[in-house]
Amino acid sequence: TAGLDTDRMGQHVIAHDEVVSTQPLAHEAAARGAKEGTLVLAELQTGGKGRLGRPWHSPKGTGIWMSLIIRPAIPLPKTPQMTLLTAVSVARAIREETGLPVKIKWPNDIFIGDKKVCGILTELNAESDRVNYLVIGIGLNANSVAEDFPEELARIATSLRIESGEPIKRARFIQQFCRIFEEEYDHYLAHGFARAKAEWEKHSYTIGRWVNVQTISQRLEGRAVGLDEEGVLMVEDQDGAIHKVYSADVNYRAN
Ligand code: BTN
Questions:
Q1: 45 carries a ligand binding annotation
Q2: How far is the CA of 140 from the centre of ligand 1 (A)?
Q3: Of 22, 80, 159, 230, which residue is most buried, by most CB within 10 angstroms?
Q4: What is the pLDDT of residues 1-20, one digit of tens each?
Q5: Where does CATH 2.30.30.100 sit in the chain?
Q6: What confidence category does residue 248 fall into, taking pLDDT thresholds of 50, 70 and 90?
Q7: What residues contact residue 215 under an 8 Å CB cut-off, 6+ apart?
Q8: Of all atoms in ligand 1, which is nearest to the CA of residue 52?
Q9: What does the alpha-carbon distance between residue 31 and residue 17 come to, in Å, rounded to a whole number?
């Protein structure tokens, strides 16, 4: 691809006009042996999927709706780090391309101010303890204008165009994301998670805030204090006890 400065990421692109969701298409491609770095893109998703079974609003032409296949040789418990690494990479790409002050809301939402501009949905394919591949779905509101959002989203969602006042070139953004992600990913594979963890914490929306955490097994309130070495969120309660939060809905309140 012209302009693509990578070794693997984005070297194979499967581009569609209209799909239900790029996620199952990426799974099918991966099952057929698609190489690491293969990207599935769509202009429009009729059944875009968000986390926790939620729908993802994916109108035609304004967004970047894409699923990336990676095949990291890492143990299963480390796979959540791939989502954090992706969030760090998207945030970097947005900063470098637009200069906008983006923040990462745990685990993987990208925020500008108090509105969400990008969501990440990671799906894992593994056999017993072995990771076959991951499909990382990225939904970025790129060129939407305010009227493009349904009423219930307008209060909580934004786009790069709304925030910066000008449209972005989507193909260029994807190329830059691929370059940045490959750099972060190669660094991670060679040297581990520490750099991405520090970068995540530096640009975190979550660290320092009071949060309400509702997991299947617990309800907890406290201050988000950081990530542990594995990428698990640590929350300190009123009594100073540290709790580890693996995957849950985190609600925020003003300090
Ligand atoms: C979230 O914040 O809940 C995650 C949203 C992920 C949306 C992307 S768009 C491309 C890929 N295909 C999907 O159906 N979902 C992901």
A1: yes
A2: 9
A3: 22
A4: 567 989 999 999 999 999 99
A5: 210-253
A6: low
A7: 245, 246, 247, 248
A8: 3
A9: 22
Question: Which regions of the chain carry the CATH code 3.30.930.10?
Answer: 13-202
78 secondary structure, DSSP code: G
3-state secondary structure of 180: helix
The ipTM is 0.99
Q: Ligand 1: residues within 6 Å at CB? A: 21-23, 45, 48-51, 54, 56, 58, 65-67, 109, 119-121, 137-139
Give 190's contacts (C-beta < 8 A, 6+ positions apart).
none
Position 156 pLDDT exceeds 70 = yes
Distance 103 CA to ligand 1 centre (A): 18
- Tell whether residue 105 is among the known ligand binding residues: no
- Atom 9 of ligand 1, residue of closest alpha carbon: 139
| CATH architecture, domain defined by 13-202 | 2-Layer Sandwich (3.30)
CATH of 210-253, one of 2.60.120.10, 2.30.30.100, 2.60.40.1260, 3.50.50.60: 2.30.30.100
Q: What is the pTM of this model?
A: 0.94
> From the alpha carbon of 120, which atom of ligand 1 is closest?
4
Average pLDDT over residues 172-190: 98
Residue 2: the pLDDT is: 61
What mean pLDDT value characterizes the chain? Answer: 93
